[in-house]
């Protein structure tokens, strides 16, 4: 199973260290779009590392994790609309 890190809203920068560690070990990093975060510092610091694969709004993160962990070439699925069955509503 591939490693996928998801960085969400927060006020500190500790998620940035986690991003680096995940990328260093071949994982993928998804970050909540800072514009949608209650506290944008954590996502912004993560993005600043240059180790982030995708920046998405919260309603797309679960489907992205699903795509990256279950489908070969799952990252390509993120460029099309997320199917309704993959959304958590």
TrEMBL record:
<dbReference type="GO" id="GO:0000156">
    <property type="term" value="F:phosphorelay response regulator activity"/>
</dbReference>
<dbReference type="InterPro" id="IPR035909">
    <property type="entry name" value="CheB_C"/>
</dbReference>
<keyword id="KW-0378">Hydrolase</keyword>
<dbReference type="Pfam" id="PF01339">
    <property type="entry name" value="CheB_methylest"/>
</dbReference>
<dbReference type="GO" id="GO:0005737">
    <property type="term" value="C:cytoplasm"/>
</dbReference>
<feature type="domain" description="CheB-type methylesterase">
    <location>
        <begin position="1"/>
        <end position="72"/>
    </location>
</feature>
<dbReference type="GO" id="GO:0006935">
    <property type="term" value="P:chemotaxis"/>
</dbReference>
<dbReference type="InterPro" id="IPR000673">
    <property type="entry name" value="Sig_transdc_resp-reg_Me-estase"/>
</dbReference>
<dbReference type="GO" id="GO:0008984">
    <property type="term" value="F:protein-glutamate methylesterase activity"/>
</dbReference>
<protein>
    <recommendedName>
        <fullName>protein-glutamate methylesterase</fullName>
        <ecNumber>3.1.1.61</ecNumber>
    </recommendedName>
</protein>
């Amino acid at each position: 199973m591939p490693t996928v890190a998801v960085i969400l809203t927060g006020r500190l920068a500790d998620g940035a260290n986690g991003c680096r560690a995940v990328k260093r070990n071949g994982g993928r990093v998804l970050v909540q779009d800072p514009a949608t975060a209650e506290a944008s510092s954590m996502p912004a610091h993560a993005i600043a590392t240059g180790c982030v694969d995708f920046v998405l709004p919260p309603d797309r993160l679960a489907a992205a994790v699903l795509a990256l962990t279950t489908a070969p070439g799952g990252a390509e699925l993120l460029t099309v609309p997320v199917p309704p069955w993959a959304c958590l509503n």
